[in-house]
Amino acid sequence: MADKIVIMLLTLDLDRYGTLGAPFFQATAAAAMDLEVEVYFAGESTRLLITGFAEAIHPGTAREKSVYSFMQDAHDAGARFYACTGAMQENGLTLDNAIPEMDGMRGGGGFIAEVIEPNVVTLTY
Fold first, then answer.
1. 3-state SS string over the chain?
2. Residues in the chain with pLDDT values less than 50
3. Which of 9, 19, 121, 122 qualifies as a cystine partner to 45, CB 3.0-4.6 A?
4. Relative orientation angle of helices 22-32 and 67-77, to the nearest 10 degrees
């Protein structure tokens, strides 16, 4: 059985708001099951880590919670958030404008090192 889940947000479509909650719902659920959870933001998904960006997006038509609220739920449950170092500059993410929940930066090597470990499950979006 796995004891860690690594979630890669690489092809997430930021224009399809209804799909943006799922990775964070699953991260929250996994953390609540006492699994170690790491979420890697790559490509355009790094924009979700810019202060104010995810707050303006609501995955449901009722607009009850923002994507940022779901991100906070996951982080509060224990998920850690990492920005792809190669995607940060391209997408306008800096250490100065990052949300406080961003736990650090990791490149492709860091991601690969995590997913090849035993008892790790990888989900990609």
1. CCCEEEEEECCCCCCCHHHCCHHHHHHHHHHHCCCEEEEEECHHHHHHHECCCHHHCCCCCCCCCCHHHHHHHHHHHCCEEEEEHHHHHHHCCCCCCECCCEEEEECHHHHHHHHCCCCEEEEEC
2. none
3. 9
4. 20
Give the residue among 54, 28, 29, 32 at the shortest CA–CA distance from 41. Answer: 54
Place of tokens 């997430």: 12
Instruction: Give me 46's structure tokens.
Output: 């790094």
- Taking only the tens place, the pLDDT of each residue in 63-97 is 789 999 999 999 999 999 999 999 999 999 999 99
Count of CB atoms situated within 10 Å of the CB of 36 = 17
Q: From CA 65, how far away is CA 58, in angstroms rounded? A: 6
Cα separation, 79 vs 61, whole angstroms: 26
